[in-house]
Amino acid sequence: MRFYEYESRRIVERAGIPVTKYGFCTSAEEARKAAEEIGGSTVIKSQVLTGGRMKAGGVKFADTPEEAEAHAAEILELEISGHMPVGVLVDPKAEVEQEYYAAVLWDGRAKRPMMLFSDMGGIDIEQVAEEHPDHVGRRHLSNLHPISGFEAKQAVANCGMTGRELGQATRVLTALAQLQRDNDMTLAEINPLARLADGSFVALDAHMEMEDEAVGRHKRMLQEIGVDLDEPRELYEPSDFERNVKAIDSADHRGVIQGKDHGFTGNLGLVIGAGGGSLTLTDAVRSQGGQPANYAEIGGNPSVTKSKGLAMEVLKKDGVEKIAVMMSIVSNTRVDIVARGVIAACLELGKDPAETIAIFRIPGAWEEEGYKILDKYGVEYADRGTSMWDAAGTAVEKIQGGAV
Amino acid sequence: MSVLLHEDFTFIVQGITGREAVNLTRECLDYGSKIVGGVTPGRKGREVHGVPVFDTVEQAVEHHGSPPDGAVATVPPAFTKDAVFEAIENGIKLIVIVTERIPRRDVAEMVELASERGARIIGPNCLGVIAPGVAKMGGIGGPAKDARKAYEPGRVGVMSRSGGMTTEISSSLTAAGLGVSTAVSIGGDAIIGSTYAELMPLFEADEQTDAIVIYTEPGGRMEAELVDWREENGSRLAIIAFMAGKFMDDEEMQGMSFGHAGTIVEGAEDSATQKIARLQEAGIPVVERIDEIPGAVKDKLGAKV
Fold first, then answer.
1. Same structural domain for residues A277 and A218?
2. DSSP symbols for A37-57
3. In chain B, which residues have their Cβ closer than 8 Å to the Cβ of A211?
4. Edge to edge, what strands does the sheet with A88-92 contain?
């Protein structure tokens, strides 16, 4: 789960890391008031779940509350990479002495979180690591032992810091490490972390991402910082197809169906599974010149209704002429149930299953029963003796043969 | 021989009274596996297909007389960490975690505890391990008769991030007369108990295994880790790889980008195409078509003899 900057700011604040006095505003009027309260120059920042705000004109500086109001009015109407902002953040324009970078994130290979700290903040950390590797301090954390301050101190000292700043930076990084652990963050990043003219450290911008699987156990925290758990935070708007498949899936707890068509525009509908099988089959269709209309995953033995629902949604898509029903060898999902589902989908839409189903290749549990049903309707099917590659090839041939 | 499992391998099933666990228990018993107990808190005294159910792992260990060799954890995601800790702290050395959607932090904690105690985790989000003709631990291959059909004892070790594809690939190896020494569904999550590289030494030491097939997908750095392991340690085994999900490299499919910080920690995340190139460069052939796997294994083995 991704967070807006103002939410990340609240999360950081709760962890005891100082932030500037800021205001989250959903109207220009509010932005003016926030700027008045802050006093002096301010920065108005668009709150969108996408990068490139600065370039797109989503970040502006204001010297007076009136100017802040005018900028907020503009930014609130400004779409950035297809996203409309949910509000603006009004922040004091800080007197920064130096910028730092602090982050805690997973190292999948070490299977542990890693702390990163740099005294060259504000810019792209990837660039710092490449050009000034001695300015990036790192240290892994144990998953089991309590987080201790010396670990952060080492990471900070490793990038060459000492003196009063060492202690201040260590406190921030330790708190950030605790925050990452306590909140199941896949990424907890403060960039820049700033030392102000008075010597204090504040987080000027923060980027937090929470693991989706863990959202359920942080509901209270999320509510407290004002996150609407029903708000979809997808990278793109789900299509009707995606929404409908999701609705069919959640209506019945037996088995799982998933469907995506973002980026797919072909004429061959795919009713496929399971996870790895779907990836393999989609590649096999495309490598043989086929054009999938969608991606799908069937798994965990769905009911007839569910299989039928997925097949109908695929068949209803614009430009879909035939469907290919294919899976890797199944041991849990039943072949006969999927067969009944896809045939029912064809019949309900007034289509001939023998014409509409280009190929049925699902070997495994209850296959004899499944093949009997397919025989009855004249649907071409294949068992495990036909590879997934060849089954996909047959489907492609049929749909292209039909078009000629 | 086989890896991980053997003729006398004993294990328990945690969460044994759950619907899927009951099926899994039936399948494993039918296949000849030795399940010596089950655990579901509050259900002590029941039986599942003749297997006694206990409240705690400690009771199961006591009943068996010593810690069983393994445990299959099939409990809801919120309780998995506790169940796996319980198994490890009661002396169990091989734990297959079937459960999906476990938060990464929990997985990392389990893996770290396992390594401190000299235990091994397979999964999570996996179907388990099968040593054809010997035993199966988990839902891998499905009911015993289906598992026998797809898996015949042989010379090839299989490691797969997809449970279903473990059986698909093994079935093609069986049909080609090569057979399978041990197949491991390693799980598809970002952090897993045992990666390709971490299982390689076991296959390396197994006399029955002459070749390895790995099935992989986009995401993670496990192929790079395998390549590094092989360069550092050398290997007598022929390795063949298959990469699914190549279509995800296309621009219109691009979704989530990983972000810069991840790149510095773990190295640039490879796309499917880059992973293929990395493996090929290291001398590990990556077949284009799933049905080319048995032929590629035969080629490699032929070249070695």
1. no
2. HH-S-EEEEE--SSS-HHHHT
3. 103-105
4. A23-25, A88-92, A42-46, A59-62
Closest CA to A271 of A397, A371, A391: A391
Please state, in angstroms and rounded to a whole number, the distance separating the CA atoms of residues A276 and B215: 9
At B145 the three-state DSSP class reads: helix
Q: What is the pLDDT of residue A122?
A: 84
B49 is catalytic: no
Contact A306, A250 (CB under 8 A): no
Shared domain check, A124 and A188: yes
Domain hosting residue A244, numbered range: 240-403
Number of domains in chain A: 3
Are residues A268 and A207 part of one domain? no
Is A366 near chain B, with CB under 8 Å?
no
Q: What is the pTM of this model?
A: 0.94
> Any idea which fold B10-304 has?
Rossmann fold (3.40.50)
Residue among B248, B260, B262 minimizing CB distance to A124:
B260
Three-class secondary structure of residue B18 per DSSP: coil
Name residue B166's amino acid. T
pLDDT in tens, A152-182: 999 999 999 999 999 999 999 999 999 999 9
Write down which residue in A214, A235, A256 finishes a domain. A235
- Within 257-286 of B, beta carbons closer than 8 Å to A belong to 259-266
Residues A251 and A227 in one domain: no
pLDDT digits (tens, 9 = 90+) for A1-20: 889 999 999 999 999 999 99
Which of A235, A265, A293 is the last residue before a domain boundary?
A235
Per the CB < 8 A criterion, the answer to whether A114 and A141 are in contact is: yes
* Confidence at residue B256, expressed as pLDDT on a 0 to 100 scale: 38
Do A62 and A193 belong together in one domain? Answer: no
Same domain as A141, residue A227? yes
Handedness of CA B104, B105, B107, B111 (dihedral sign): positive
Cα A221 to Cα A7, A17, A229, B41, distances in angstroms = 11, 16, 11, 30
Give which of B264, B271, B293 to mutate to test A binding, by max A Cβ within 10 Å: B264
Of B111, B164, B265, the CB nearest to A276: B164
Inform me whether the pLDDT recorded for A183 exceeds 60. Answer: yes
pLDDT at A25: 96
Q: Do A283 and B102 touch (CB under 8 A)?
A: no
B68-91 tens-digit pLDDT:
999 999 999 999 999 999 999 999
Residue ranges covered by each domain of chain B:
10-304
Interface of B with A in 40-69 (CB under 8 A): none
Considering the domain architecture, whether residues A89 and A114 belong to the same structural domain is answered as: no
